[in-house]
Write a structure and sequence with these properties.
Number of domains: 1
CATH superfamily: Small protein B
Number of helices: 4
CATH class: Mainly Beta
Radius of gyration: 18 Å
CATH topology: Small Protein B, Chain: A
Structural class: alpha+beta
Length: about 150
């Protein structure tokens, strides 16, 4: 996508979850947080989205403290409010409550100077699903390798 600078991706989400649908959400951030994001000091690995009241919050995402902020910095693991349209929030909350799905952050990027996070509606994979996905990837890799050797 043009004008989109990817800051970080959550590769573990694709391994642990079956991603069903994705949404783009803005973030309510402080000044030191956006500067830290622009520097690329973000970790989405353990992050998740949780409804609180009638809002969605991004939890457990580590945005490192900004060095030059001094004592005016931020808490690296503080909850951050997601900015979505009301109908999107309502749709996501109903699907999470009814179907037993979860919301996980997959990608954080900058668009026109604004930090955005892509959240995915996901279903958790079982251990045997993860193993079969790894097995399929290995067989595809071996097939490609043998085809390349023949050429």
């Amino acid at each position: 996508m043009e004008g989109r600078k990817v800051v970080t991706t959550n590769r573990k989400a694709r391994h642990d979850f079956e991603l069903l649908d994705t949404y783009e959400a803005g973030l309510a951030l402080t000044g030191s947080e956006i500067k830290s994001i622009r520097a690329g000091h973000v970790n989405l690995r353990e992050g998740f989205v949780q409804p609180r009241g009638d809002e969605l919050w991004l939890l457990n995402v580590h945005i490192a403290s900004y060095e030059q902020a001094g004592m005016f910095g931020h808490d690296p693991l503080r909850p951050r409010k997601l900015l979505l349209h009301r109908r999107e929030i309502d749709r996501l909350m109903s699907q999470v409550q009814e179907k037993g799905l979860t919301l996980v952050p997959t990608v954080m990027y900058l668009t026109r100077g604004l930090a955005k996070v892509e959240i995915a509606l996901a279903r958790g994979k079982k251990k045997y699903d993860k193993r079969s996905a790894l097995r399929e990837r290995d067989t595809e890799r071996q097939i490609r390798r043998t085809l390349n050797e023949r050429q």
